[in-house]
Specification:
It is built from 12 helices and 13 strands. It is an alpha/beta fold. The protein has a 7-stranded parallel β-sheet, with helices on both faces. Strand 5, helix 7 and strand 6 form a beta-alpha-beta unit. The protein is globular and about 55 Å long.
Length: about 325
């Protein structure tokens, strides 16, 4: 099969591209290498894939309509996997117009060109952030998600709504995957597990917002990749699935796990809870288990152990 993976040089995208080409598929990776974090990290992410004849890199932006038209018209594509987005809850509060433009307008560009070029399978990376301050846990796909508490979350919910509209209007099947805090090798350096690991290792203070009792459902990268692959096979109509580990851990306990694996003690600097943060994320994965055979294999303990082994190797 022929895939277009947007955001394909990022953390999840680079792993996914490798997974797809190792299975014998042809992959076009589209990435704009923006400066949200060091673009050199993304260059490093794709070094292995670049040597594969079934992989092609196109440097470009999902807001560039002319470039996208050229990509769609000059290549045979079977599936679009749309991972590209402006990431981060807290930064979206500072730059909401940028997040709206990239995450909403960019998604519409890809959906519109998919329809115009008769592409019938589209996978959209959504987020657990759409659940906002949902009081019912675990979070289920049938729960109302009408009250996101950050512009980032709102753009992801908007992406789901637009995808639903396109799926109802045209012969295109769209699956929206709500990722729950993905971590593992190549995780973005600004995300908690990577950031805490680096700062603890360097003997620097780590910022903790609130009292450390917030809970997150952390999902290891290979489990997310399994979910994406399975969703491609089952992409039929409009569907929404949670991809999480369906286990939560308190922030204080997460820090303890990192300390244990690094054999170093954290220096904690406390701050008030920040706008846009939620007290808990917790995925009900019953639907994904039933319909796309999604079964996460990595506990947070096992995943942290593997992540820190990778971190040590990268540092050496």
């Amino acid at each position: 099969m022929n895939f277009l993976v947007t955001g394909g040089a990022g953390f999840i995208g680079s792993h996914l591209c490798e997974r797809l080409i190792s299975a014998g598929h042809h992959v076009i990776c589209l990435d704009n290498f923006n400066t949200y974090y060091d673009p050199g990290i993304k260059r490093q992410n794709i070094e292995i894939a670049l040597s594969n004849k079934n992989y092609r890199l196109i440097e470009g932006d999902i807001l560039d309509w002319d470039l996208l038209q050229n990509v769609f018209q000059k290549n045979t594509l079977d599936v679009i996997i749309h991972l590209a987005a402006r990431a981060g809850v807290r930064p979206s509060i500072q730059e909401p117009r940028l997040y709206q433009k990239v995450n909403v307008e960019g998604s519409i560009n890809l959906l519109e060109l998919s329809v115009r070029n008769n592409i019938h399978k589209f996978v959209f990376a959504s987020s657990s952030s759409v659940y906002g301050n949902n009081k019912k846990v675990p979070f289920s796909e049938s729960d109302p998600v009408d009250h996101p508490i950050s512009p980032y979350a709102a753009t992801k919910k908007a992406g789901e709504l637009i995808a639903s509209t396109y799926s109802s209007l045209y012969p295109i099947s769209i699956t929206c995957l709500r990722f729950f805090t993905v971590y593992g090798e190549r995780q973005r350096p600004d995300m908690a597990i990577h950031k805490f690991t680096r700062l603890i290792d360097q003997g620097k203070e780590i910022p903790v917002f609130g009292d450390g009792t917030s809970q997150r459902d952390y999902t290891y990268i290979s489990d997310i990749l399994d979910g994406i692959e399975n969703s491609i096979d089952q992409c039929d109509g409009y569907k929404v699935y949670n991809l999480g580990n369906s286990q939560t851990i308190e922030l204080n306990n997460l820090i303890g796990l990192i300390e244990k694996n690094l054999d170093k003690k954290a220096k904690i600097k406390s701050f008030p809870i920040q706008p846009g943060d939620v007290p808990i994320t917790y995925a009900d994965i019953t639907l994904a288990e039933k319909e796309i055979n999604y079964h996460p294999n990595y506990s947070i303990e096992k995943g942290i152990e593997r992540f820190i082994a990778w971190y040590r190797k990268e540092k050496s």
